[in-house]
Amino acid sequence: MLLLYSFLSCLLLFSSKVFGEQELSSIVDDQCNPEVASWTSWFNTQNPKTTNGNDIEDISIIRKSYPEAARCDTVLNVEYSVLGKTNNDTSLYQTLVNNNGVVCMGSPTSRCPDYSVRFCCPNKQEYMSQQCGQTFRQPHTNSPLRIVNGFQAIPHSLPWAVSLQYKDVHDCGGVIIDQWHILTAAHCLDYSNDLGNFYVRVGAHNRLSSGQLIPIAELIIHPTYDESRSSDDIGIIRLASPITFSSDVQPICLVDNMAEPPLDATVYVAGWGNTVHQMWDTSSPILLQARLRVISDCSMYFAYQPQNQICTAHNGSADKDHGSCQGDSGGGLLYFKNGRWYAAGVVSYAIGCGQQAYPTVFTKTAAYIDWIHEIINRQKSN
Protein backbone atom coordinates (compact mmCIF):
# COMPACT_ATOMS: atom_id res chain seq x y z
CA MET A 1 0.00 0.00 0.00
CA LEU A 2 2.87 2.41 0.82
CA LEU A 3 4.38 1.77 -2.60
CA LEU A 4 1.03 2.51 -4.24
CA TYR A 5 0.62 5.81 -2.40
CA SER A 6 4.21 6.80 -3.23
CA PHE A 7 3.52 6.17 -6.88
CA LEU A 8 0.27 8.10 -6.74
CA SER A 9 1.98 10.95 -4.95
CA CYS A 10 4.59 11.28 -7.69
CA LEU A 11 1.94 11.01 -10.38
CA LEU A 12 -0.37 13.56 -8.80
CA LEU A 13 2.37 16.06 -8.01
CA PHE A 14 3.61 15.80 -11.57
CA SER A 15 0.11 16.50 -12.92
CA SER A 16 -1.03 19.04 -10.31
CA LYS A 17 -0.40 22.06 -12.55
CA VAL A 18 -2.84 20.59 -15.03
CA PHE A 19 -5.39 19.10 -12.69
CA GLY A 20 -5.08 21.36 -9.67
CA GLU A 21 -8.29 21.49 -7.61
CA GLN A 22 -9.84 18.87 -9.92
CA GLU A 23 -10.63 15.17 -9.68
CA LEU A 24 -9.75 12.17 -11.79
CA SER A 25 -12.61 9.72 -11.42
CA SER A 26 -13.43 6.32 -12.91
CA ILE A 27 -16.92 6.39 -11.35
CA VAL A 28 -19.65 6.87 -13.92
CA ASP A 29 -22.78 6.79 -11.73
CA ASP A 30 -23.97 6.37 -8.14
CA GLN A 31 -26.04 3.25 -8.66
CA CYS A 32 -26.15 0.30 -6.24
CA ASN A 33 -28.42 -2.58 -7.28
CA PRO A 34 -30.64 -3.27 -4.22
CA GLU A 35 -31.30 -6.84 -5.38
CA VAL A 36 -27.73 -7.94 -4.72
CA ALA A 37 -25.96 -5.11 -2.87
CA SER A 38 -26.32 -2.14 -0.55
CA TRP A 39 -24.45 0.99 0.47
CA THR A 40 -22.32 1.05 3.58
CA SER A 41 -22.55 3.98 5.95
CA TRP A 42 -20.31 6.98 5.29
CA PHE A 43 -16.68 6.76 6.42
CA ASN A 44 -14.28 9.63 7.16
CA THR A 45 -10.98 8.31 8.50
CA GLN A 46 -8.73 11.33 7.83
CA ASN A 47 -9.01 15.05 8.32
CA PRO A 48 -6.70 17.03 6.02
CA LYS A 49 -6.58 19.91 8.53
CA THR A 50 -4.61 17.80 11.00
CA THR A 51 -2.41 15.86 8.57
CA ASN A 52 0.12 16.80 5.90
CA GLY A 53 -2.75 17.93 3.70
CA ASN A 54 -3.64 14.52 2.30
CA ASP A 55 -7.05 12.85 2.63
CA ILE A 56 -7.02 9.12 1.96
CA GLU A 57 -10.28 7.19 2.38
CA ASP A 58 -9.24 3.72 1.22
CA ILE A 59 -11.36 0.55 1.49
CA SER A 60 -8.43 -1.65 2.56
CA ILE A 61 -7.84 0.58 5.58
CA ILE A 62 -11.55 0.98 6.34
CA ARG A 63 -12.09 -2.80 6.33
CA LYS A 64 -9.57 -3.19 9.14
CA SER A 65 -11.28 -0.60 11.36
CA TYR A 66 -14.99 -1.05 10.68
CA PRO A 67 -16.73 -4.46 10.87
CA GLU A 68 -19.49 -3.16 8.62
CA ALA A 69 -17.01 -2.96 5.73
CA ALA A 70 -15.88 -6.58 6.12
CA ARG A 71 -18.29 -7.67 3.37
CA CYS A 72 -16.56 -5.29 0.95
CA ASP A 73 -13.96 -7.68 -0.43
CA THR A 74 -15.69 -6.78 -3.70
CA VAL A 75 -16.62 -3.12 -4.31
CA LEU A 76 -19.26 -2.57 -6.97
CA ASN A 77 -19.40 1.22 -6.77
CA VAL A 78 -18.31 4.17 -4.63
CA GLU A 79 -19.88 7.48 -3.73
CA TYR A 80 -18.06 10.39 -2.12
CA SER A 81 -19.00 13.69 -0.55
CA VAL A 82 -17.02 16.86 0.24
CA LEU A 83 -17.63 17.79 3.86
CA GLY A 84 -15.72 21.02 3.66
CA LYS A 85 -12.83 22.74 1.95
CA THR A 86 -9.83 24.19 3.73
CA ASN A 87 -8.53 27.73 3.30
CA ASN A 88 -5.65 27.06 0.96
CA ASP A 89 -2.84 29.36 0.00
CA THR A 90 -2.77 27.53 -3.34
CA SER A 91 -4.96 24.97 -5.04
CA LEU A 92 -2.35 22.45 -6.13
CA TYR A 93 -3.88 19.25 -4.85
CA GLN A 94 -5.10 16.30 -6.89
CA THR A 95 -7.80 13.73 -6.15
CA LEU A 96 -8.14 10.25 -7.60
CA VAL A 97 -11.50 8.47 -7.17
CA ASN A 98 -12.10 4.81 -8.05
CA ASN A 99 -13.57 1.67 -6.49
CA ASN A 100 -10.81 1.63 -3.88
CA GLY A 101 -12.10 4.95 -2.50
CA VAL A 102 -10.66 8.47 -2.55
CA VAL A 103 -6.97 9.36 -2.59
CA CYS A 104 -6.25 13.09 -2.45
CA MET A 105 -2.64 14.27 -2.41
CA GLY A 106 -2.04 17.75 -1.04
CA SER A 107 0.47 19.66 1.03
CA PRO A 108 0.48 21.82 4.20
CA THR A 109 -0.09 24.89 2.01
CA SER A 110 -2.58 23.23 -0.35
CA ARG A 111 -4.69 20.89 1.72
CA CYS A 112 -7.24 18.55 0.21
CA PRO A 113 -10.95 18.92 0.88
CA ASP A 114 -12.32 16.74 3.68
CA TYR A 115 -13.87 13.76 1.89
CA SER A 116 -16.26 11.13 3.20
CA VAL A 117 -16.92 7.98 1.22
CA ARG A 118 -19.31 5.04 1.11
CA PHE A 119 -19.14 1.80 -0.84
CA CYS A 120 -21.66 -0.32 -2.71
CA CYS A 121 -20.85 -3.87 -1.62
CA PRO A 122 -22.53 -7.24 -2.19
CA ASN A 123 -25.01 -8.67 0.25
CA LYS A 124 -23.11 -11.94 0.34
CA GLN A 125 -25.81 -14.56 -0.02
CA GLU A 126 -27.94 -12.71 -2.58
CA TYR A 127 -24.97 -11.61 -4.67
CA MET A 128 -23.17 -14.93 -4.72
CA SER A 129 -26.34 -16.92 -5.46
CA GLN A 130 -26.58 -14.93 -8.69
CA GLN A 131 -22.87 -15.49 -9.33
CA CYS A 132 -22.91 -19.29 -9.16
CA GLY A 133 -20.69 -21.25 -11.48
CA GLN A 134 -18.03 -18.53 -11.79
CA THR A 135 -14.33 -19.25 -11.42
CA PHE A 136 -11.47 -16.79 -11.15
CA ARG A 137 -8.99 -19.27 -12.70
CA GLN A 138 -9.70 -21.06 -15.97
CA PRO A 139 -9.75 -24.84 -15.42
CA HIS A 140 -8.26 -27.44 -17.75
CA THR A 141 -10.87 -28.31 -20.37
CA ASN A 142 -9.01 -29.65 -23.39
CA SER A 143 -6.29 -31.92 -22.06
CA PRO A 144 -7.31 -35.52 -21.25
CA LEU A 145 -6.60 -35.12 -17.56
CA ARG A 146 -7.53 -37.95 -15.27
CA ILE A 147 -7.98 -38.76 -11.61
CA VAL A 148 -6.73 -42.34 -11.95
CA ASN A 149 -3.04 -42.11 -12.99
CA GLY A 150 -3.04 -38.55 -11.71
CA PHE A 151 -2.99 -35.11 -13.28
CA GLN A 152 -3.81 -32.21 -11.02
CA ALA A 153 -6.37 -29.49 -11.53
CA ILE A 154 -5.23 -25.89 -11.73
CA PRO A 155 -5.30 -24.74 -8.07
CA HIS A 156 -8.69 -23.24 -7.14
CA SER A 157 -9.99 -23.39 -10.70
CA LEU A 158 -12.91 -25.50 -9.44
CA PRO A 159 -13.74 -23.46 -6.31
CA TRP A 160 -16.96 -25.37 -5.48
CA ALA A 161 -15.19 -28.70 -4.93
CA VAL A 162 -15.05 -29.81 -1.29
CA SER A 163 -13.47 -32.66 0.62
CA LEU A 164 -15.64 -34.47 3.18
CA GLN A 165 -13.36 -35.61 5.98
CA TYR A 166 -14.01 -38.01 8.84
CA LYS A 167 -11.47 -37.96 11.67
CA ASP A 168 -9.11 -35.94 9.46
CA VAL A 169 -9.21 -38.52 6.64
CA HIS A 170 -10.71 -37.72 3.23
CA ASP A 171 -13.82 -39.82 2.65
CA CYS A 172 -15.93 -38.32 -0.17
CA GLY A 173 -16.38 -35.28 -2.36
CA GLY A 174 -19.15 -32.74 -2.78
CA VAL A 175 -19.93 -29.36 -4.29
CA ILE A 176 -20.96 -26.04 -2.74
CA ILE A 177 -24.49 -24.98 -3.77
CA ASP A 178 -24.86 -22.01 -1.41
CA GLN A 179 -23.20 -20.66 1.72
CA TRP A 180 -25.00 -23.17 3.98
CA HIS A 181 -25.26 -26.33 1.85
CA ILE A 182 -23.10 -29.00 0.19
CA LEU A 183 -24.50 -31.40 -2.41
CA THR A 184 -23.12 -34.94 -2.33
CA ALA A 185 -24.12 -38.61 -2.58
CA ALA A 186 -26.35 -40.19 0.06
CA HIS A 187 -23.94 -43.09 0.54
CA CYS A 188 -21.32 -40.59 1.78
CA LEU A 189 -23.46 -39.56 4.76
CA ASP A 190 -23.05 -42.38 7.26
CA TYR A 191 -21.92 -40.20 10.15
CA SER A 192 -25.10 -38.83 11.73
CA ASN A 193 -24.12 -40.36 15.08
CA ASP A 194 -20.67 -38.78 15.04
CA LEU A 195 -21.00 -35.32 13.52
CA GLY A 196 -18.30 -33.99 15.82
CA ASN A 197 -15.69 -35.84 13.76
CA PHE A 198 -17.16 -35.10 10.33
CA TYR A 199 -16.15 -31.87 8.56
CA VAL A 200 -16.30 -30.16 5.19
CA ARG A 201 -13.07 -28.70 3.86
CA VAL A 202 -13.72 -25.80 1.47
CA GLY A 203 -11.27 -23.79 -0.63
CA ALA A 204 -8.65 -26.53 -0.73
CA HIS A 205 -6.27 -27.60 -3.44
CA ASN A 206 -4.07 -29.66 -1.15
CA ARG A 207 -6.62 -31.13 1.26
CA LEU A 208 -3.95 -31.63 3.93
CA SER A 209 -2.68 -28.08 4.14
CA SER A 210 -5.07 -25.61 2.49
CA GLY A 211 -8.65 -24.48 2.75
CA GLN A 212 -10.89 -24.27 5.79
CA LEU A 213 -12.64 -26.95 7.85
CA ILE A 214 -16.29 -26.16 8.56
CA PRO A 215 -18.36 -28.15 11.11
CA ILE A 216 -21.59 -29.84 10.06
CA ALA A 217 -25.03 -29.23 11.56
CA GLU A 218 -27.12 -31.84 9.74
CA LEU A 219 -26.88 -34.65 7.18
CA ILE A 220 -29.95 -34.87 4.95
CA ILE A 221 -30.37 -38.06 2.91
CA HIS A 222 -33.02 -38.30 0.22
CA PRO A 223 -36.04 -40.03 1.82
CA THR A 224 -36.25 -42.78 -0.82
CA TYR A 225 -32.53 -43.59 -1.00
CA ASP A 226 -32.02 -47.34 -1.42
CA GLU A 227 -28.48 -48.39 -0.55
CA SER A 228 -28.84 -51.90 -1.98
CA ARG A 229 -29.85 -50.55 -5.42
CA SER A 230 -27.91 -47.25 -5.25
CA SER A 231 -31.11 -45.46 -6.27
CA ASP A 232 -31.90 -41.86 -5.24
CA ASP A 233 -28.27 -41.65 -4.15
CA ILE A 234 -28.21 -37.97 -3.29
CA GLY A 235 -27.83 -36.00 -0.07
CA ILE A 236 -27.28 -32.52 1.31
CA ILE A 237 -25.04 -31.33 4.11
CA ARG A 238 -26.22 -28.36 6.14
CA LEU A 239 -23.27 -26.54 7.67
CA ALA A 240 -23.01 -25.27 11.22
CA SER A 241 -21.59 -21.95 10.02
CA PRO A 242 -21.83 -20.21 6.66
CA ILE A 243 -19.17 -20.29 3.99
CA THR A 244 -17.34 -17.04 3.25
CA PHE A 245 -17.06 -16.77 -0.51
CA SER A 246 -13.82 -15.61 -2.14
CA SER A 247 -11.83 -16.20 -5.31
CA ASP A 248 -10.96 -19.67 -3.92
CA VAL A 249 -14.46 -20.59 -2.70
CA GLN A 250 -17.55 -20.28 -4.90
CA PRO A 251 -20.92 -22.02 -5.33
CA ILE A 252 -21.78 -23.97 -8.46
CA CYS A 253 -25.02 -23.67 -10.41
CA LEU A 254 -27.41 -26.64 -10.62
CA VAL A 255 -28.73 -28.18 -13.83
CA ASP A 256 -32.54 -28.13 -13.66
CA ASN A 257 -33.30 -29.32 -17.21
CA MET A 258 -33.81 -33.08 -17.52
CA ALA A 259 -32.45 -33.00 -21.10
CA GLU A 260 -29.07 -31.61 -20.04
CA PRO A 261 -26.26 -32.33 -20.43
CA PRO A 262 -27.04 -33.72 -23.90
CA LEU A 263 -25.77 -36.96 -25.37
CA ASP A 264 -22.03 -36.89 -26.16
CA ALA A 265 -21.52 -33.70 -24.11
CA THR A 266 -18.08 -33.32 -22.56
CA VAL A 267 -18.28 -33.24 -18.77
CA TYR A 268 -15.75 -33.35 -15.94
CA VAL A 269 -15.29 -34.84 -12.51
CA ALA A 270 -12.81 -33.81 -9.82
CA GLY A 271 -11.76 -35.24 -6.48
CA TRP A 272 -9.16 -36.34 -3.98
CA GLY A 273 -9.97 -40.04 -4.29
CA ASN A 274 -7.78 -43.06 -4.95
CA THR A 275 -5.43 -43.04 -7.93
CA VAL A 276 -5.20 -46.86 -8.03
CA HIS A 277 -8.24 -49.14 -7.88
CA GLN A 278 -8.82 -50.73 -4.44
CA MET A 279 -5.60 -49.34 -2.99
CA TRP A 280 -6.87 -47.17 -0.15
CA ASP A 281 -3.54 -45.53 0.60
CA THR A 282 -3.38 -43.97 -2.88
CA SER A 283 -5.83 -41.11 -2.33
CA SER A 284 -4.49 -37.87 -3.74
CA PRO A 285 -3.58 -34.95 -1.44
CA ILE A 286 -4.17 -32.53 -4.33
CA LEU A 287 -7.33 -32.05 -6.38
CA LEU A 288 -7.36 -34.09 -9.60
CA GLN A 289 -9.80 -33.91 -12.47
CA ALA A 290 -10.97 -36.13 -15.32
CA ARG A 291 -12.78 -35.58 -18.58
CA LEU A 292 -15.82 -37.75 -19.36
CA ARG A 293 -18.51 -38.06 -22.05
CA VAL A 294 -22.27 -38.47 -21.63
CA ILE A 295 -23.59 -41.70 -23.16
CA SER A 296 -27.13 -42.92 -23.57
CA ASP A 297 -27.41 -46.04 -21.46
CA CYS A 298 -25.78 -48.06 -18.69
CA SER A 299 -28.49 -50.73 -18.43
CA MET A 300 -26.33 -53.50 -19.86
CA TYR A 301 -24.09 -53.15 -16.78
CA PHE A 302 -26.34 -51.85 -13.99
CA ALA A 303 -29.95 -51.44 -12.89
CA TYR A 304 -29.75 -48.06 -14.56
CA GLN A 305 -32.56 -45.47 -14.19
CA PRO A 306 -32.28 -42.95 -17.04
CA GLN A 307 -34.80 -40.53 -15.49
CA ASN A 308 -32.75 -40.23 -12.31
CA GLN A 309 -29.22 -41.01 -13.40
CA ILE A 310 -26.60 -39.95 -15.97
CA CYS A 311 -24.30 -42.45 -17.64
CA THR A 312 -20.77 -41.38 -18.64
CA ALA A 313 -17.92 -43.04 -20.46
CA HIS A 314 -14.14 -42.78 -20.46
CA ASN A 315 -12.98 -39.74 -22.47
CA GLY A 316 -9.25 -39.79 -21.95
CA SER A 317 -6.17 -41.26 -23.58
CA ALA A 318 -6.79 -44.62 -25.21
CA ASP A 319 -4.02 -46.47 -23.39
CA LYS A 320 -4.98 -45.72 -19.78
CA ASP A 321 -7.96 -45.84 -17.45
CA HIS A 322 -9.47 -42.46 -16.88
CA GLY A 323 -12.13 -41.35 -14.38
CA SER A 324 -13.30 -41.38 -10.79
CA CYS A 325 -12.31 -43.85 -8.12
CA GLN A 326 -13.02 -44.66 -4.46
CA GLY A 327 -13.11 -41.42 -2.49
CA ASP A 328 -14.46 -39.42 -5.43
CA SER A 329 -18.06 -40.35 -4.59
CA GLY A 330 -20.34 -37.37 -4.10
CA GLY A 331 -18.24 -35.09 -6.27
CA GLY A 332 -20.00 -33.11 -8.96
CA LEU A 333 -20.48 -33.98 -12.61
CA LEU A 334 -19.28 -30.63 -13.95
CA TYR A 335 -20.86 -29.16 -17.07
CA PHE A 336 -19.90 -25.85 -18.69
CA LYS A 337 -22.60 -23.88 -20.51
CA ASN A 338 -23.04 -20.22 -21.48
CA GLY A 339 -20.09 -19.04 -19.42
CA ARG A 340 -21.08 -20.84 -16.19
CA TRP A 341 -20.27 -24.15 -14.54
CA TYR A 342 -23.11 -26.43 -13.46
CA ALA A 343 -23.40 -29.57 -11.36
CA ALA A 344 -25.33 -31.99 -13.56
CA GLY A 345 -25.01 -34.82 -11.06
CA VAL A 346 -23.01 -36.40 -8.24
CA VAL A 347 -20.75 -39.46 -8.44
CA SER A 348 -22.75 -42.53 -7.43
CA TYR A 349 -21.10 -45.80 -8.57
CA ALA A 350 -19.03 -47.60 -11.21
CA ILE A 351 -17.18 -50.81 -11.89
CA GLY A 352 -13.53 -50.25 -11.09
CA CYS A 353 -11.97 -46.83 -11.54
CA GLY A 354 -12.52 -45.10 -14.85
CA GLN A 355 -12.07 -48.30 -16.80
CA GLN A 356 -12.55 -47.91 -20.53
CA ALA A 357 -14.79 -51.00 -20.64
CA TYR A 358 -17.25 -49.75 -18.02
CA PRO A 359 -19.26 -46.54 -17.56
CA THR A 360 -19.71 -44.41 -14.43
CA VAL A 361 -23.16 -43.55 -13.07
CA PHE A 362 -24.07 -40.16 -11.59
CA THR A 363 -27.25 -39.21 -9.76
CA LYS A 364 -28.99 -36.64 -11.97
CA THR A 365 -29.33 -33.23 -10.30
CA ALA A 366 -32.29 -32.13 -12.43
CA ALA A 367 -34.38 -35.08 -11.23
CA TYR A 368 -34.11 -33.84 -7.63
CA ILE A 369 -34.10 -30.08 -8.12
CA ASP A 370 -37.43 -29.54 -6.30
CA TRP A 371 -36.21 -31.53 -3.31
CA ILE A 372 -32.92 -29.63 -3.26
CA HIS A 373 -34.72 -26.27 -3.28
CA GLU A 374 -37.06 -27.48 -0.53
CA ILE A 375 -34.09 -28.26 1.73
CA ILE A 376 -32.38 -24.96 0.96
CA ASN A 377 -35.55 -22.93 1.54
CA ARG A 378 -36.11 -24.71 4.85
CA GLN A 379 -32.81 -23.25 6.08
CA LYS A 380 -33.72 -19.76 4.85
CA SER A 381 -37.09 -19.87 6.64
CA ASN A 382 -35.36 -20.83 9.89
TrEMBL record:
GO terms for biological process: proteolysis. GO terms for cellular component: extracellular region. GO terms for molecular function: serine-type endopeptidase activity. The keyword Transmembrane helix does not apply. PROSITE patterns: TRYPSIN_DOM, TRYPSIN_HIS. It is found in: Secreted. Residues 1-20 form the signal peptide. Keywords: Disulfide bond, Glycoprotein, Hydrolase, Protease, Secreted, Serine protease, Signal, Zymogen. Its main location: secreted. Residues 147-377 form the Peptidase S1 domain. The keyword Glycoprotein applies. SUPFAM superfamilies: Trypsin-like serine proteases. It holds the Pfam family Mucin2_WxxW. PANTHER family: ACROSIN-RELATED (PTHR24252), HYALIN (PTHR24252:SF7). This is Peptidase S1 domain-containing protein.
